[in-house]
Amino acid sequence: MKTKPTIQALLTCLALAVALPAMADDEAKEVEAGERGGRLLATESPRPEFFVEKDHTVSVKFYDADGKVVAPADQQVTVIATGDEKKKLQLEKKGDALVSTEPLPEGDGYGLVVQVRADADSRPENFRFTFVNHICGGTCGNPEYACTCDE
Predict the structure, then answer these.
(1) Would you say residue 103 has pLDDT above 80?
(2) For residue 39, which phi and psi values (nearest 5 degrees)?
(3) How far apart are the first and last CA of the chain?
(4) Where are the domains of the chain?
(5) What confidence category does residue 9 fall into, taking pLDDT thresholds of 50, 70 and 90?
(6) In angstroms, rounded to a whole number, what is the distance separating the alpha carbons of residues 39 and 148?
(7) What is the DSSP string of 77-126?
(8) CB–CB of 80/86 below 8 Å?
(9) Which 8-state DSSP code applies to residue 151?
(10) Phi and psi dihedrals of 131, rounded to 5?
(11) CA proximity to 40, closest of 17, 63, 58
(12) Residue 71 CA to chain centroid, in angstroms?
């Protein structure tokens, strides 16, 4: 009769393994949206806003403490799409933004790692989130990757 407690213990462990990361993700979801409706990343000023354009390229604008756009200086941003098709995007200066030279992989639902460096010698700050591009059905009206709704 020792199999019942063992199976029950395994099922409990499995349930916790599934539920705890989901709960932690919900608690960690304090997303801020930028001026363009993209995801504002939590760094020192100037703060970068990650935004996916209609052609699936990525653009990043930087905002000072007053929320005004500042042209990128020495900042470097790299975007890594994880999933079936791993892809690393380099961004280069274009006007007042850093823009990817190629688009993200097609579709959505895959992971992204956005690496932000203050300059070439700085250690990167990594931001991980799931890229879902459709517009949120809640009140914020942002793409899901930048959703600020509490739901």
Answers:
(1) yes
(2) -90, 120
(3) 44
(4) 1-29, 31-146
(5) low
(6) 9
(7) EEEEE-SSS-EEEEEEEETTEEEESSPPPSSS-EEEEEEEESSTTSPPEE
(8) yes
(9) -
(10) -85, 110
(11) 63
(12) 21
Question: Looking at residue 143, what DSSP letter applies?
Answer: B
d(CA 107, CA 131): 9
Q: Which residue has the tokens 């499995």?
A: 14
The residue with greater pLDDT, 93 or 151, is: 93
Q: What number is the average pLDDT over the span 145-151? A: 83
Is 58 in a helix, a strand, or coil?
Answer: strand
Tokens 């213990």 sit at which residue?
9
What is the distance of C-alpha 136 from the center of its chain? 15
| DSSP label of 33 | E
Report the alpha-carbon distance of residue 19 to residue 30 in Å, rounded: 19
What distance in Å separates the CA atoms of residue 114 and residue 129, rounded to the nearest whole number?
A: 9
Q: Is 4 exposed, middle or buried (0-12, 13-18, 19+ CB in 10 A)?
A: exposed
Q: How far apart are CA 96 and CA 72, in angstroms?
A: 6
CATH class of 31-146: mainly beta
